[in-house]
Design brief:
Radius of gyration: 29 Å
Structural class: alpha/beta
CATH superfamily of the largest domain: Aldehyde Dehydrogenase, Chain A, domain 1
Largest sheet: 7 strands, mixed
Strand order of the largest sheet: 12-15-16-11-10-18-19
CATH architecture of the largest domain: 3-Layer(aba) Sandwich
Distance between the termini: 79 Å
Number of domains: 3
Length: about 525
């Protein structure tokens, strides 16, 4: 009997549909089909891939309202949040790679020395891994599936993707969109299931695994992949800090803190989960935040800032962090209220680093606020975390703010803005510490879905090379002199004079190249070294 999963609407908890779980046998067959498609796709030029994938933009724009409704129903987001957090970043990434993928992925030719590599050329190229397995989360199931998926496709790979069991209709939607743009059969395939299905997917031995999710699942993914072994890219969430100095635009900083902490009801990997405010403005800033938080609207009416919780299971963590903070002396702007799936946002202040809410990822609509005194204390507080995904620094003194940002142990930072920096398609995105490793977005992200193959082609007519046998004490002295000539101290002419006898051994070698005479060799060495 085929196992199945029922998916519920985050708006009303009605069953949307029941889906059969993809079996191990089916996954193996999908891998086989993906490998065949990957060979076909890798043979396409980057420009040909761009031409085909660009059609996805048109398809999305044609159905944007229907797409928005589906994502809203599955995730509980408000419609504006869907457009800003799910759809727009995908379109922006598509446009970026349309313009830049050819340049980013083109082969690279390197110079070679006329002595060490006479009449030779060196180059390296990037090749797709083959089949990429993408395992995506429930909080942004459209964007956080399509962003790595498109990156994998632009770089020449086939993809098997598994959405969260809470987000299967989004995976079905993505499949339908790709079916409309004429890609090779088997190039993009959807896997349906839970964590056990994810294990089966990894055990089917794709060539690269890209995972977005929590630290515990990330460790399990990494351990599973290591058994084969398969390279992994992990984006594991964060505990992002926001540092507000007393010279900041406080109105802007307050509005940003609300958005940074409460967008998508705090279910964002780069949510502001720790807010540090300079002590001279701490009291007034907390008052501003509390007042502004009380005016936010929750729900799916004509006006709505926060939608529903996608995962009710996450509320247990939110509640535990809230209760722990109050028990240890924190104050709250309001009691914790969950009405159905709708959580009222809360500001907490007088928090300390021994509270769970300052240590663990909350992933909910709580904003803890803590005071700091000096720049160094702010930096120390921000870095006192096992996570390192994103951070923001707030000050009218841009030089100061950027200097502080560069001292934060994170993969990404912003000055006088929040969250938006991860939507810049040209900026590589990823974390450090328990926030994972590897990058996507930007040139580095595209290249992370490829591996390099280096090549050296020699057209030399020589019968031997100076590094080939036979070796002798004489050859040792010659090579020793050459090394001193290349790397030793002194001016070019000083190095030449003291090693002249050794260099004579290479004269015939250099002159034997019809196009590279001894004079060319001297030009080479002149260009290669900086005289002292």
């Amino acid at each position: 009997m085929t196992e199945s999963i029922a998916v519920y609407s985050a708006l009303n908890e009605h069953v949307l549909q029941t889906y059969p779980i993809t079996s191990q046998t089916d996954i193996r067959e999908q891998i086989t089909a993906a490998r065949s498609a990957a060979k076909t796709w890798a043979a396409y030029s980057v420009a040909q891939r761009i031409a085909l994938l660009s059609a996805l933009k048109t398809v999305i724009l044609e159905d944007i309202d229907a797409i928005t409704d589906t994502i809203m129903t599955v995730t509980g987001k408000v419609k504006t949040e869907v457009l800003l957090g799910e759809v727009y970043p995908v379109l922006e990434l598509l446009r970026y790679y349309e313009k830049n993928a050819v340049r980013i992925l083109k082969p690279c030719h390197l110079s070679t020395s006329p002595l060490a590599f006479p009449n030779a050329k060196a180059q390296f190229e990037r090749r797709p891994y083959g089949v990429v397995a993408i395992i995506s989360p429930w909080n942004f199931p459209f964007q956080l599936t399509l962003s790595p998926l498109l990156t994998a496709l632009f770089s020449g790979n086939a993809v098997l993707f598994k959405t969260s069991e809470l987000s299967i209709p989004i995976g079905e939607l993505i499949t339908q969109l790709f079916n409309r743009i004429g890609l090779p059969i088997g190039l993009v395939q959807h896997i349906i299931g839970d964590a056990k299905t994810g294990e089966h997917l990894i055990d089917s031995r794709p060539d690269l695994v890209f995972f977005t999710g929590g630290i515990h699942a990330g460790r399990a993914i990494m351990a599973r992949a290591a058994q084969h072994p398969i390279p992994v890219i992990l984006e594991l969430g964060g505990k992002d800090a926001m540092l507000v100095f007393d010279d900041a635009n406080l109105t802007r900083a307050c509005n940003a803190a609300l958005y940074g902490a409460f967008s998508n009801s705090g279910q964002v990997c780069v949510s502001v989960e720790r807010l540090y405010v300079q002590d001279s403005i701490y009291a007034q800033f907390v008052e501003r935040l509390s007042d502004a938080t009380s005016k936010l609207t929750v729900g799916h009416g004509a006006v709505g800032d926060l939608g529903a919780l996608t995962s009710l299971a996450q509320y247990k963590t939110v509640e535990a962090h809230y209760q722990d903070a109050l028990a240890k002396g924190a104050k709250a702007s309001a009691p914790l209220q969950l009405n159905g799936r709708y959580l009222q946002p809360v500001v907490l202040w007088d928090v300390t680093h021994d509270m769970l809410i300052m240590q663990e990822e909350t992933f909910g609509a709580l904003l803890p606020v803590m005071a700091f005194n000096t720049e160094q204390q702010a930096i120390d507080f921000a870095n006192d975390s096992d996570y390192g995904l994103n951070a923001s620094v707030w000050s009218r003194d841009i030089t100061k703010a950027e200097r502080i940002a560069r001292q934060l142990q994170v993969g990404n930072w912003a000055v006088n803005d929040v969250i938006k920096n991860i939507g810049h398609a040209g900026l590589p995105f990823g974390g450090v510490k328990n926030s994972g490793f590897g990058r996507y977005h930007g040139a580095e992200g595209l290249r992370n879905f490829t591996y390099t193959v280096s090549g050296l082609t020699s057209r030399s007519a020589l019968n031997d090379e100076p590094n080939w046998f036979p070796y002798s004490d004489v050859r040792y002295q010659q090579m020793r002199g050459f090394i001193d000539f290349v790397f030793g101290n002194g001016s070019f002419w000083q190095r030449t004079r003291r090693n002249w006898q050794a260099l004579q051994a290479f004269r015939g070698y250099a002159q034997s190249n019809a196009r590279q005479h001894w004079e060319n060799f001297l030009i080479f060495v002149c260009r290669s070294f900086n005289p002292h």
